[in-house]
């Protein structure tokens, strides 16, 4: 393969990977939203929709029945409900097959492109977020733009077009009000957002997210006495902490989430900008909201929480001791999965299972999950053994690609670290939504212009002053 | 090769969008065409290694100024402007053509003085944020830059004073 095609392949893989990263977390977040709301409101939440799994021995018969057009009847061995995760799947099916209604009074062209803009802008923003240390010398980032963080701000400022156009093109006053609220709110909070990001630029001396992440992977030195490896996160400096709080509040406003979800305030605006949308067009807005939250969490994690860096362990350390790390993680995960297996097995004693008939396939769900967790424990034990036997070094030697094994490990660990940080951010979104009431419009504007903007401005001056002072004192 | 093809593609998009700004009847369509035009221009800046200018173009023009424009259009809910004069070339169109012709002559004159020169070699780091920051805050442009920022502050205060009846 020539160099050109290798490069093209890498570019395509990067794009596919970053879109897949965001789109795979979306259903998880929707599930988390429902379960989180239920947890906070002290109710069980979604737990009904099942998937019926046929007996593996039955599959050939079912296949031939499907091919010959016969009836597909089978007695499931287990009816899988997976704590409500299946609801997200049924949601997708429902939204895809619902009738797509275009009201007569809308401005067709703008009405059609608005959800597309909302969704594509949300996905584009992820392009500059690095999702791992170099893999075989390739940067794990769709684009290593020089102005990385500025690109993020530019894209967020474009995100408002989707909502605005939807509100205007729907041609009804509620949608229009939603669109207007959204644009005013997003323009107002962009300033506080940009100014709080300036502190991060000052700390890193660069605007590129790759540089910002790399700098946070260095050791955190407390007054030059203690050095903690790979923990130089921006949130652990006083100005960085304040900047993080301001940025995070602004992110809530930019993603139109509670307490700033006035654009879709259902009590006064029906559904706000997406009142007239149905079927998959509504789904695009719905997914865009979650995609925005995920991307915002990823950007915040990258700016303030070290991005893909693991705390306390640097990438260089992981590469040097790859096999030992693999063994430790593999064997360390075994007891965790065994505990999960025991928990799943014990669920059989719940009153729910006592109340349903003995031949109900839902009865077998705890046993199914026990098997899944036992399998996971076994697989991780296998990984641990592979680590002990030098499997990663062996992989590099076997394929003849130098550093493949360690790089693979570093890649998996880094992407997991980023995903965990994103999920924690996502949980905070959900937690806040079900805890705080919606703000009034004047309160929203007051907070943005009269409190956050001056504080952010002051923070920039103080941070810059401190950096100069530190330079004079210690250098 | 790829870059120059993309450059001309985006330039074409900018020109088409620019023409659409003045030919569309509905103000929203005009404003959105202008956004597309700014976007295409930003892409052209990227091709010319001016990444910072490109991002700022999107951030400031497409993302903030045009949002406010469209905000106002939506708030006033202007659907379509009145009929444009047709038939004989009106006085307005005549003046417009004359101005456009003068501008065209000026552009051709400027292009003629530039186009025959070989393109200058780019120094490493050209167009980066560091280079632009160095030129603006440490080089010859410090005084104009500060003067412009003062001017903007004056404009902002003026707008606040005008908009706020009782200060």
Brief characterization of the structure:
With 475 residues, chain A is an all-alpha fold. Chain A is built from 17 helices and four strands. The longest helix of chain A is centred in the N-terminal third of the chain and has 38 residues.
Extended strand count of chain A: 4
Largest β sheet strand count, sense and barrel closure of chain B: none
Under CATH, the topology of the largest domain in chain B can be stated as Four Helix Bundle (Hemerythrin (Met), subunit A)
Radius of gyration of chain B: 20 Å
Percent of residues of chain B in helical segments? over 70%
Distance between the termini of chain B: 59 Å
Compile the SSE list and pairings.
The complex is a heterodimer of chains A (475) and B (167).
Chain A: H1 3-40, E1 51-53, H2 59-68, E2 78-80, H3 85-97, H4 108-124, H5 148-169, H6 173-204, H7 209-216, E3 220-222, E4 226-228, H8 238-254, H9 266-269, H10 279-304, H11 315-320, H12 322-346, H13 351-355, H14 365-388, H15 391-399, H16 404-433, H17 441-474
Antiparallel strand pairs in A: 1-2, 3-4
Helix pairs in contact in A: 1-3, 1-10, 1-16, 3-10, 4-5, 4-10, 5-6, 6-7, 6-8, 6-17, 8-10, 8-17, 10-16, 12-14, 15-16
Chain B: H1 2-23, H2 27-47, H3 51-76, H4 91-115, H5 129-138, H6 142-163
Helix pairs in contact in B: 1-2, 2-3
């Amino acid at each position: 393969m020539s160099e050109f095609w290798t490069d093209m392949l890498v570019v395509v893989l990067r794009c596919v990977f970053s879109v897949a990263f965001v789109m795979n977390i979306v259903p998880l977040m929707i599930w988390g939203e429902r379960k989180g709301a239920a947890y906070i409101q002290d109710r069980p939440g979604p737990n009904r929709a099942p998937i019926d799994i046929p007996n593996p021995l039955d599959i050939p018969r079912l296949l031939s029945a499907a091919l010959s057009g016969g009836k597909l009847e089978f007695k499931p061995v287990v009816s899988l409900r997976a704590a409500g995760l299946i609801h997200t799947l049924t949601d997708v099916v429902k939204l895809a097959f619902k009738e797509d209604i275009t009201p007569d009074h809308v401005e067709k062209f703008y009405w059609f492109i608005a959800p597309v803009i909302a969704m594509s802008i949300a996905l584009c923003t992820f392009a500059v977020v690095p999702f791992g240390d170099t893999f075989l010398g390739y940067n794990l980032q769709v684009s290593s733009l020089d102005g990385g963080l500025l690109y993020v701000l530019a894209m967020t400022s474009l995100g408002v077009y989707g909502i605005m156009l939807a509100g205007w093109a729907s041609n009804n006053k509620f949608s229009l009000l939603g669109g207007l609220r959204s644009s005013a709110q997003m323009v107002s909070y962009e300033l506080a957002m940009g100014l709080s990001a300036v502190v991060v630029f000052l700390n890193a001396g660069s605007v590129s997210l790759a540089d910002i992440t790399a700098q946070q992977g260095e050791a955190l030195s407390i007054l030059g006495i203690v050095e903690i490896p790979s923990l130089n996160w921006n949130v652990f400096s006083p100005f960085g902490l304040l900047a993080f709080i301001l940025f995070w509040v602004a992110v809530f406003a930019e993603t139109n989430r509670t307490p700033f979800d006035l654009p879709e305030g259902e009590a006064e605006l029906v559904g706000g900008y997406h009142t007239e949308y149905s079927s998959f067009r509504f789904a695009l807005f719905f997914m865009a909201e979650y995609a925005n939250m995920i991307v915002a969490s990823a950007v915040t994690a990258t700016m303030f929480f070290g991005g893909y860096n693991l705390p306390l362990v640097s990438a260089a350390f992981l590469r040097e001791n790859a096999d030992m790390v693999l063994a430790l993680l593999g064997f360390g995960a075994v007891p965790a999965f065994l505990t999960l297996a025991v928990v799943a097995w014990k669920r059989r004693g719940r009153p729910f299972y006592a109340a349903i008939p003995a031949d109900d396939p839902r009865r077998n769900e705890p046993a199914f999950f026990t098997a899944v967790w036992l399998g996971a424990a076994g697989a991780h034990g296998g990984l641990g053994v592979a680590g002990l036997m030098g499997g990663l070094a062996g992989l590099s030697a076997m394929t003849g690609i130098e550093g493949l094994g360690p790089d693979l490990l570093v890649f998996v660990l880094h992407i997991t670290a980023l995903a965990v940080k994103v999920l924690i951010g996502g949980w905070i979104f959900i937690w806040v939504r079900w805890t705080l009431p919606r703000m009034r419009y004047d309160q929203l504007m007051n907070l943005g212009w009269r409190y956050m903007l001056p504080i952010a401005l002051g923070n920039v001056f103080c941070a810059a002053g401190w950096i100069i002072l530190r330079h004079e004192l210690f250098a | 090769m790829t870059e120059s093809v993309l450059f001309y593609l985006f330039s074409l998009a900018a020109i088409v969008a620019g023409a659409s700004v003045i030919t569309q009847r509905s103000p929203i369509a005009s404003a959105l065409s202008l956004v597309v035009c700014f976007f295409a221009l930003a892409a052209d800046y990227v091709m010319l290694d001016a990444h910072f200018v490109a991002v700022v173009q999107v951030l400031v023009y497409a993302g903030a100024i045009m949002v406010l424009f469209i905000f106002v259009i939506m708030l006033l809910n202007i659907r379509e402007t009145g009929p444009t004069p047709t038939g004989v070339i009106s006085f307005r169109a005549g003046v417009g053509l004359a101005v456009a012709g003068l501008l065209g002559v000026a552009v051709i004159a400027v292009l003629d003085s530039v186009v025959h020169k070989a393109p200058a070699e780019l120094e490493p780091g050209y167009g980066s944020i560091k280079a632009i920051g160095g030129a603006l805050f440490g080089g010859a442009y410090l005084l104009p830059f500060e003067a412009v920022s003062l001017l903007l502050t004056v404009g902002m205060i003026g707008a606040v004073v005008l908009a706020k009846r009782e200060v």
